[in-house]
Amino acid sequence: MGLDWETVGRIDISQWPALFTPREIEALRQVPRTAQHELATVLFGAKESIQKARYAATHTWSELSLLEVVLDLERKKFSVRGDETLAGHFLVDGRTAVAACWIAHRAGPPTTFA
Which one, of 46, 44, 49, lies nearest residue 18 by Cα? Predict the structure, then answer.
């Protein structure tokens, strides 16, 4: 399991290309500017929690910009595009964002959060 706690507003737009995929950046640009800081923080926190969970299992790191997170804002869940074993939940209150990720070992078809 990986857990991350972030302060909203810490991720500046100039950092987006180093942290997010083009599809994630496009999604950030689609939300009102007032929500971009919060959403960018959620995305970053999700990626950090994914890294921590993966490191605990594999002892390897990967570039954050290579992980593509799919957010389900309504259900406060996230998944990793192309890797059905990684999933998590997040909470955000305008000041902080918390994300928790776990590695699922499934015997059946994967569950996706589209």
Answer: 44
